[in-house]
């Protein structure tokens, strides 16, 4: 008998233990070399554990166990014979498919083929259903044997539900307990730490989004045709922030052992919601990127977060963070600083409101914005001036081209 040990990989230098989130195979199953056999949660990211050889697997740590990095997760008996009838299916030529079918196939291929009862949700589908109050009777499964996949849930939520199929609540007073993941524990610890160790204040302002909305409406089609990405609001905010940070470097700084560390670059973190919690991937050197590059980078990072493929390196080292609660309908909030950074900008929903312009009351699409900052390093004057500069550039997009100045101001040497 020849066995190889599969050890728990390290998600990063500072992480010593992880949680076995889910086994995608059963003890005694035959696995192929390179097949993903388990998902591992750390306090920063989710990793996949792959078989390093073909053979019969023996599981050494159960789902939900906290294990040390480098410990043995499973063993593979490479001398075991491959079961009859388990030959791989022939490869087919790739072709475009609907989103629902693609999402369903992604989930199917990430787990070994099994037989499921019709209407049984997968792990990821069950989690999404619980978070959104969706019942299995409201969804038709497209997986093996009628299993409900995450793609089925997404498609059902997008198309709406028949309210007659919603089960009536029976008034049970039940409770359930779920173990906190390492990621959720780390998030809670960091949030409490920020509250306890910083002098956090928040300043607010409002932005008239009409200039940017008009610009998008005018150029969005040609922009997408030329660059292959859509033109969203986040790229404008990222660009405006990166310019404003040069004018107010303290907002882009951090405190380290009694010293203020100033950064001559802007690595902007973009808060992205995922099934496992909030994650903040980083756009490196945002000040050097155009709108198309920013949009492309945001899209790639957000996809990695949603797919659980984001790495620790892609979430470390940011100098400033932007979070957008507006996508969930938030009107106003006080975002919490992402340490060791000293400030964070909160975006909110856009609502048509009456405003005064040139002595006249007009209706404009207004977004409230909030800047939370560490008062130990950033004074009130700097925080308010920074937010005003961001507002000014968003309401006058041409200012983003000249370091926050108009062409006329540059011509006049102002």
* Rg estimate, integer Å: 25 Å
Tell me the span between the first and last alpha carbons: 80 Å
Mean pLDDT: 82
Order of helices and strands: EEEEEEEEHHHHEHHEEEEEEHEEEEHH
Low-confidence regions:
88-116
The largest β sheet comes out as: 7 strands, mixed
What does this structure look like?
The chain is α+β, with helices and mostly antiparallel strands and 414 residues long. It has three domains: 3-77, OB fold (Dihydrolipoamide Acetyltransferase, E2P); 99-165, no CATH class; 182-411, Chloramphenicol Acetyltransferase, CATH 3.30.559. The protein is 29% helix and 24% strand. The chain contains nine helices and 19 strands. It has helices spanning 99-109, 123-132, 150-159, 182-197, 210-227, 233-247, 291-307, 380-395, 407-411, and strands at 3-7, 17-23, 30-31, 36-41, 46-50, 55-59, 66-68, 72-77, 200-208, 254-256, 259-261, 268-270, 272-274, 277-279, 282-283, 320-324, 343-347, 350-357, 360-374. The strands form five sheets. Strands 9, 12, 15, 16, 17, 18 and 19 form a seven-stranded mixed β-sheet that branches. It has a four-stranded antiparallel β-sheet with strand order 1-8-6-3, with no helix packed on it. Helix 2 (123-132) runs parallel beside helix 3, helix 6 (233-247) packs across helix 7 and helix 6 (233-247) crosses helix 8.
Write the layout of secondary structure elements.
Elements: E1 3-7, E2 17-23, E3 30-31, E4 36-41, E5 46-50, E6 55-59, E7 66-68, E8 72-77, H1 99-109, H2 123-132, H3 150-159, H4 182-197, E9 200-208, H5 210-227, H6 233-247, E10 254-256, E11 259-261, E12 268-270, E13 272-274, E14 277-279, E15 282-283, H7 291-307, E16 320-324, E17 343-347, E18 350-357, E19 360-374, H8 380-395, H9 407-411
Parallel strand pairs: 12-16, 16-17
Antiparallel strand pairs: 1-8, 2-4, 2-7, 3-6, 4-5, 6-8, 9-19, 10-11, 12-15, 13-14, 17-19, 18-19
């Amino acid at each position: 008998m020849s066995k190889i040990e599969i050890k728990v990989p390290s998600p990063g230098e500072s992480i010593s233990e992880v949680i076995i989130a889910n086994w995608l195979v059963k003890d005694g199953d035959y696995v192929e070399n390179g097949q993903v056999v388990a998902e591992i949660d750390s306090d920063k990211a989710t990793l996949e554990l792959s078989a390093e050889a073909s053979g019969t697997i023996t599981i050494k740590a159960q789902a939900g166990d906290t294990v040390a990095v480098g410990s043995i997760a499973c063993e593979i008996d490479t001398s075991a014979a491959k079961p009859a009838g388990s030959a791989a299916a022939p490869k087919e030529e790739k072709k475009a498919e609907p989103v629902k079918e693609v999402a369903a196939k992604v989930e199917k291929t990430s787990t070994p083929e099994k037989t499921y009862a019709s209407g049984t949700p997968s792990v990821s589908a069950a989690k999404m259903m619980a978070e959104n109050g969706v019942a299995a009777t409201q969804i038709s499964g497209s997986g093996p044997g009628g299993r409900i996949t995450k793609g089925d849930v997404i498609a059902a939520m997008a198309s709406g539900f028949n309210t007659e199929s919603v089960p009536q609540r029976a008034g049970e007073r039940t409770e359930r307990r779920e173990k906190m993941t390492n990621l959720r524990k780390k998030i809670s610890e960091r949030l409490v730490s920020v509250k306890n160790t910083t002098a956090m204040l928040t300043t607010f302002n409002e932005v008239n989004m009409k200039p940017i909305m008009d610009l998008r409406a005018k150029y969005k089609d040609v922009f997408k045709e030329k660059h292959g990405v859509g033109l969203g609001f986040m790229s404008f905010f990222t660009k405006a922030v990166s310019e404003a940070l040069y004018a107010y470097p303290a907002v882009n700084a951090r405190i380290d052992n009694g010293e203020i560390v100033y950064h001559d670059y802007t690595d902007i973190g973009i808060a992205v919601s995922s099934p496992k919690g909030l994650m903040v991937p980083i756009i490196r050197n945002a000040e050097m990127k155009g709108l198309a590059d920013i949009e492309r980078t945001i899209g790639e990072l957000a996809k990695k977060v949603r797919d659980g493929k984001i790495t620790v390196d892609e979430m470390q080292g940011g100098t400033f963070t932007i979070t957008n609660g507006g996508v969930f309908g938030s009107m106003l909030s006080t975002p919490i600083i992402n340490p060791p950074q000293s400030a964070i900008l909160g975006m909110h929903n856009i609502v048509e409101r009456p405003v005064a312009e040139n002595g006249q009351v007009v209706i404009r699409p207004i977004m409230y914005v909030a800047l939370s900052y560490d008062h130990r390093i950033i004074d009130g004057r700097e925080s308010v001036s920074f937010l005003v500069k961001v507002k000014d550039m968003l309401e006058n997009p041409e200012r983003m081209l000249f370091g926050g100045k108009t062409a006329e101001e540059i011509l006049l040497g102002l």
